[in-house]
Structure formats: C-alpha cells, structure tokens
Amino acid sequence: MQIHPLAAFADNYIWTLHDGQRALVVDPGEAAGVQGWLMQHGLVLDTILITHHHADHTGGVAALREASGARVIGPTVEPMPEPLQRVDHGDTVEVMGLSFQVIKVPGHTAGHIAYFLPALDGAPLLFCGDTLFSGGCGRLFEGTPAHMHASLARLAALPDDTRVCCTHEYTLSNLRFALAVEPMNADLQRHRAHCEALRERNLPTLPSSIGLEKKINPFLRSREDAVRQAAHARDPLAATDEVGVFATLREWKNVFR
Known about the structure:
This protein is α/β, with parallel strands linked by helices. The protein has helices at 32-41, 55-58, 61-68, 145-156, 171-181, 186-200, 210-216, 225-234, 242-255; strands at 2-8, 12-18, 22-26, 44-49, 71-75, 85-87, 92-95, 98-104, 113-120, 123-129, 132-133, 136-137, 163-166, 208-209.
C-alpha cells in the first residue's frame, strides 16, 4: 500500500491510498486532480472516505462517484452527497482488505469523524480531517470547546507512532502560534526548522505523528505547566481547568497573526 497527499485549492490535501490497482481517496474537495492522478497511475477508484460535510472536503464526490462507481462512506449525522454508506463511532469500515475504525470527533463540525487503521506497513494510520492539525486543531464551527477537547484527547490516546494525515497545510502558521504559547519548547523549535526546510522545497509537512503532536501541539498539552501559564496570562478568568485552557488557546489562535 502506498499513501500520498494530493494538493488541492490553496492548502488542502486529498489523501490517497492505493495497492497498485485500486485506490481510496479521503475528503476529495475537487475531482479533476484526483481523476488525473488515477489516470496517471492506472488506478481504479474503489472507495471515497469523508470526514465531514464542508465543501472543500466533499465538492468532488459526486463527479468521482459518477465517473467510477466508487463506494462513498461518510458520517451519520451530517449532510452528505447522497447516496453513501453512513458510519458512526465504533463502526468498522472494510476497504481493499483494510479494516478502518471509525472515531467520532465532534468540534469542528457536529458529526465529524476520523478513520483509524491500526496497522499499515508497520505503523497505524489516521485520517482526521479538520479535527487535528500539525501544531493545531480545527476551528469550532459547530461544537463547543468541551467537544473538541474530548475529541483531541481521544486522538491523543492512539499509539504514538500513528501517522496523522491532516487535510490542510497549516503547519507553519500553527507552529508560529505554538511558539507564542511555549517559546522555550525545544521540540517545537526543532520541528519548526524541519518544516521550514520542507516547505522551502515545496514538500508537505505531513503526515505528522501522535507522539510528535503531544510534544509540540498546544491543543494536546493543556496539562503542561507552560501551556496553562500562557493561557492563564491570556485570560485568568477563563483558564481555570483543562477545557478552559483549551478554550482560551482556541480563542487566542482565532485572532493570532
């Protein structure tokens, strides 16, 4: 199995996985780039996985399904491009001989889900949509800070070597914010330099890993003293517990430039 991110729009990634004959794609916001990639590699589209309903993740689904007859799988409670198979937390999705576990991760949207593959070529794999980014997390469009904090905790509990396939190239922007929160975090400093070198060569900073994110991502580090102190300095009244720390960080990130 080979995994590859297809760049789309200004900063999206459409994740692909293929065995040399069949392919799955995750969150195809547009169809043309996917169709060109399939043709270039001589692949048949088998399955489309959708994490949430936003147009930059679903806009290409109808055209791809019509062209290929691919099976479409998406969350239970969100508006989706019908017809599709709807799945919920705890379900298992069989795709091309692989068994993905469905994890409900509300916050960015109300019914957002992620797809977790416990092992692929020696390491787990996570397609997490717009819930977890490298160094950051999604905005709260339909959920509460408590929802997103719980969703991120669920993902942080996955094995450290889990490869995190986020759907946006937001890493450098997120790391700038993370360094404002934890300027003395040496892991964060090293990772920023690494990602800057990747982007200078127009290479993706992804996938990340759960283990790395627990070292550098402030939204997974609300128990750390430095993060709590930064949030408390930002808003002493709000940052009184872990959810409050998370909410303060998220509001801070919303206006960070």
